[in-house]
Design a protein that fits this description.
Helix content is about 40%, strand content about 20%. By secondary structure, the chain is α/β, with parallel strands linked by helices. About 30% of the residues are buried.
């Protein structure tokens, strides 16, 4: 597995579908395996329900972790990183403030220039 995308989520029921669709579109033809790890940080809306639907759809390798209550973004990131199996791990928010394509560009740079951390 080349890349693990760790996605902390708190009350993101309206954006997780859009986010996963963006990932699938942006990584089409990338030539390597990737996974998306959603971490529901005790959301009070329907985020967990939406994440379970995404997982069941099997659009791409997806994992869903869920906290019983809100522990904070740092705890969600840590849990996602512990679950990640990719050679590279990227943290990205589900709100699409940054497009997933930026991560694809970062992977390309790392592959082309191994001296970069």
């Amino acid at each position: 597995m080349k890349l693990s995308l760790v996605v902390p989520c708190y009350n993101e029921s309206g954006s997780v579908h859009l986010f996963l669709d963006a990932v699938i579109g942006d990584f089409e033809g990338c030539g390597y395996d990737y996974e998306v790890i959603f971490v529901n940080d005790g959301s009070r809306d329907n985020t967990l329900f939406q994440l379970k639907k995404l997982y069941a759809a099997h659009k791409c390798p997806t994992k869903v972790l869920s906290f019983s209550r809100n522990f904070g973004k740092e705890a969600a990131v840590y849990a996602g990183m512990r679950e990640a199996v990719g050679e590279y791990v990227a943290l990205i928010d589900a709100d699409l403030q940054q497009r997933p394509s930026i991560v694809r560009n970062m992977v390309s740079i790392l592959e082309e220039k191994p001296e970069i951390d």
